[in-house]
Amino acid sequence: MNAMTEIDSAVLQVRDLRVELPGEVDVVSGISFSLQAGEILGLVGESGSGKTTLATALLAHARRGAQIVGGQVNVGGQALLSLDSEALRRARGSLIGYVAQDPATALNPALRIGHLLRETLAVHPLGLDREAQQVRIRETLQDVGLPDEPEFLRRFPHQLSGGQQQRVMLALAFVLRPCLIVLDEPTTALDVTTQAHILDTLRHLCKRQGVAAVYVSHDLAVIKDLVDRVMVMYAGRIVETATREALFSRPSHPYTRGLLAAIPDVAGRRELQAIAGHAPAPGQRPTGCSFGPRCERFTDACSRAEPTLPVGVAHAVACWVPHEQPLQAVALTPIASVAAHTQAPLLTVCALNVAYDRQVLFDINVQVQPGECLALVGESGSGKTSLARAIAGLGENASGALSYAGQPLPLQARRREAGQRHPIQYIFQNPYRALNPRQTVYQTLSAPLEHFFCVKGAAARQRVEAVLTRVSLPASVADLYPGSLSGGERQRVAIARALLCEPRLLICDEITSALDVSVQASILDLLRQLQREGLTLLFVTHDLGVVRAIADRVLVLKAGRVVEQGAVDEVLDRPQAAYTRTLLAHSPSLG
Predict the structure, then answer these.
(1) Is the pTM here over 0.85, yes or no?
(2) Torsion sign over Cα 146, 148, 151, 156
(3) Three-state SS for 27?
(4) How many Å apart are CA 134 and CA 103, to the nearest integer?
(5) Which class does domain 3-227 fall in?
(6) Which are the contacts of 249, defined by CB distance < 8 A and separation ≥ 6?
(7) How many helices (H) and strands (E) does the chain have?
(8) Domain boundaries, the chain
(9) What is the pLDDT of residues 274-317, one digit of tens each?
(10) Whole-angstrom Cα distance, residue 371 to residue 421?
């Protein structure tokens, strides 16, 4: 089949798509590609690359303030951009489905699961009678791995786990048997086991039903075993497109190689290389190659003209000086040698139990050595965060014994002396909710200085600027509000706030899960540097690739109990517990 025949038979055809902000500022431009029935396309790039804008434009939708000003989007032979509002409403769902990133906010909390599915079939009539609709709903629930009994259909979204909610989202998209489905980072907040099941379900449904899919992600490792083809976006342009095999074996664009070099891999400890700089915002993109200011291969030719993406080429690269060699990984050695620990433990946890409406931790015993990084891993609901919060004194209904630096440590933070509170600091998962939006960075950072050390005025300003430099932020950030910062910058501010408290133990609760892989790499490098300076880390995560990259030891939790612990390479290379082996089997890997 030649290229022209493939285009003619494509389920999705996009030609010269352009989305603008007011003032003719392009968000995405010059986007052209096609998809065949059953083909899965991975759309990857950092935040701000334009991938979500492109994904929603495939549904003829643009965010507030933006507008689709040119190009064509044909799905199943229909030109979506030329449809009137009623015809477009019917096409969304029946012709093209959409799965949002956060099912908890996408599902109506007031409607039962069965009602949501029946309503979807009613709004998009398919000529099915009541009995046929029930059959369709049962078949779809079975397809996505959900129970089809009446008891499940009577549940509300909040009565389901995150993985079940995401499967309901898949069911709502597939129940109408669309030609195309668009998925916007649907597994970002899920643990590795649930993520693997969702991806396997999606792959099975697309291939069996012949549904084309566009899967948006910032993590190439997640989509490696899912997609047939990968399209890499940067600054609103496609910079590389290739089959999965070609892109992972021989990435050619410097940006693609940068993304791959920043991803931690559970298969082996290797150096993570963050991409220097930031992606340019719309209206601030330089002339010539937009990636030029961040590229080590930048030449004068790159600044004179924007490289174009060749058309009709299986592996196409928009670069004047593309790479021709495979990407080489650099091995990384652990910081703290577990065998060399001779000091007394910094933290000891004895027979810790935690209960809410039910017991979530059972007789946890663990020690944390000075200067090491101990990772807490497990699926959602395993008790990782409950253990971390209990150590920080933030847990409720906890019993057991804690000791810090050889002294008893009360389970409640309010009962701890000031000399026990500031050495143990907690960094929360969501950088967008961790900082007060009404306070400047300086106000946020100076508060612990005054509270713990009575430092004010010029001395406080000096220490704030020094700690900002320590976390690789300019001193000028001190006068900004959180709303002016990126997610990675906010997380660095949260780390800076913790460092101002002069901690010896830093508890990190999934602090990189919401970040781009390049930003994640820079944060992990910062934490490793702090560890070299003597800081002890307790790192909560469900990402075993991150564990391999940063941890010295790992403790595996399942349903509130420790099932395995030991040196990170020993546990990940030779796991003894069946549960650990399951986590490893479901962890995405570049290997």
Answers:
(1) yes
(2) positive
(3) strand
(4) 23
(5) alpha beta
(6) 326
(7) 22, 21
(8) 3-227, 251-332, 335-417+506-591, 432-502
(9) 998 888 989 999 999 999 999 999 999 899 999 999 877 899 99
(10) 19
